[in-house]
Amino acid sequence: MTSAKLTYDGKDYELGLIEGTEGEVGIDTRKLRKDTGGAITYDPGYGNTGSCSSAITFIDGEKGILRYRGYGIEELAEKARFVEVCHLLIYGSLPNEQQLEEFSRRLTLHTLIHEDMKKFFEGYAASAHPMAILSTMVASLSAYYPDSADDHDIDLNIVRLLAKAKTIAAFSYKKSMGHPVIYPSNDLSYTQNFLHMLFALPVEEYRVPTVLDEALNLLLILHADHEQNCSTSAVRMVGSSQANLFVAISAGINALWGPLHGGANQKVIEMLRGIRNDGSDYKKYVAKAKDKDDPFRLMGFGHRVYKNYDPRARLLKKAADDVLAELGVDDPLLDIARELEQVALEDGYFVERNLYPNVDFYSGIIYRAMGIPTEMFTVMFALGRLPGWIAHWKEMREDPTTRIHRPRQIYTGENSRPFVPISER
Ligand code: CMC
C-alpha cells in the first residue's frame, strides 16, 4: 500500500501515505487544497488529524499502551527517577551515570528564581488559583532569560525552566497559605527539593518522608508526556510561530487548566466530595452522567485516545491503595471512587462508549493523602508534563519541515453586503 485514492467532483486524486514505526498510517493531504482547487479536510477537534510526526511518545489507545521513547510506562514507573525520564524525553535517551550527575547538577544550580520575581507573588490575592500564578510566572521568565537562537542558550533555558517551575509552584502554595517561602536546598534531589519547598516551615526541621518522595516520583513520571494532547498541541501551536520556550510552555499550562484536560483532577475530588455530601449515592451520579439533558459528566472518566483502561490510571489505582496504607490515611473518597468505578464499568452506557477511568481519576486521592491542597492538583500535573512539553517544543524547533501552524476553516457567515449607516439600522 503506497497511496490512497480520493474521488472529488468526478476526478480521482492520488494521496501519498506516511507510515510510523508502529505501523500507524496517515494519508498525506498537504497538497489537497492546491490540487483540488480549494477543498480542505474538515475535522473539528482534530480527532483524525495528524498534526506532525514525532519520535517521543507512542500510544495505542485500543490496547492501552503508553511508551516514552520506546520504554513502557509500567517499567519506567517502577524503575526510573523523574529526572531520568526528563532526560529521556528531552534528549532522546536514558542518561548514563555521568550524564545523570551532570543533568541533576544543572537542575540544582538553576533552582532559584530571580529575587525580583518574588515581588510578583505579593501582587496576587491569597485566593489566586496557583495555575494562574504558574502560567504567568513561567511566561515572565522570558523577561529575565531572553530568547536566543544559540543552541547552548536554548538548552540553558530548558534547564532553567525545569529547575525553576517547581520553585514557582511551591512559592505559589506558600503564598496561598500566607506562609513565608522556603528556598530550595542544594543537597536535595529534584523531587525532595519540591516537597521541601512545599512542606518545610522556618520554625522546625523538616525531613522529606520517603513515601511522599516515591509517590511524587511516580505521579510526575506518569504525567510526563502524552503525545499530541490539548496542552502539547497548544505548546506546538504557539511555538510554531517561533515564540520563545517560556511563553509556549505557558500556553500549555493554560490549556492544561481546563476541566476536560488536566483540570479534571481537581474536579474529580470536588465531584467525589459532592457525592459524599449528598449521602454517597454514587448510582444517582452515574444516572446523571448518562442523562443527555443533564450537563453532568463523570470527571476522570473517558478519553479521546484510550478505548481501553488508561494504563496510567491502572498504576495510580494500585498506588492509591499503597500510598494511603503507608501513610495510614483512611479516605472515604477512595471508597466512593472505587464504588463509582465499579458501577460505571458494569453499566451499558459506559461499556458501549469504552469509558474507563483516566489518569485524573485516582491521582487526586493520592495528592490529598500527601497533604497537597485540591487547587494545587493541576499544578502537580503541569510539573510532571513539563519535560513532555519541552521535548515537543524542541523536536518541532529542530525539524526543518516545521511550518507555522495555521489551520483552515469552512466559513458559514454572511456573504458580502454593503455597510449600513447607523441612521438606517
Ligand atoms: N461522563 C459521561 N459521558 C461521557 C464522559 C463522561 N466522563 N466522557 C465521554 N462521555 C460520552 C459522551 O457524552 C459521548 O456520548 P455520545 O456518543 O452519546 O454523544 C461519548 O461518551 C464520547 O465522548 P466525547 O465527548 O465525544 O469524547 P471526546 O474524545 O471528545 O472527549 C473527554 C474526551 C476526556 C474530554 C471526555 O471523555 C470527558 O469530558 N471526560 C471527563 C473529563 C476528564 O476526565 N478529563 C480528563 C481527560 S484525561 C487527562 C488529560 O488529558 O488531561
Structural write-up:
This protein has 425 residues and is mainly alpha-helical. It has a domain at 3-50: Rubrerythrin, domain 2. Helix content is 53%, strand content 7%. The protein contains 18 helices and 6 strands. It has helices at residues 32-36, 73-79, 82-91, 97-109, 115-123, 130-144, 151-177, 190-199, 210-223, 230-239, 245-257, 264-277, 282-290, 311-327, 332-346, 348-352, 359-370, 377-398; strands spanning 3-8, 11-19, 25-27, 57-60, 65-68, 71-72. The strands form 2 sheets. Strands 1-2-3 form a 3-stranded antiparallel beta sheet. Helix 7 packs antiparallel against helix 18. The longest helix is centred in the middle third of the chain and has 27 residues, at 151-177. It is globular, with a radius of gyration of 23 Å. It starts with a strand and ends in a 27-residue tail after the last helix. The model has no long low-confidence stretch (mean pLDDT 95). The site of carboxymethyl coenzyme *A has 19 residues, from helix 17. The site of carboxymethyl coenzyme *A (CMC) has 19 residues, from helix 17.
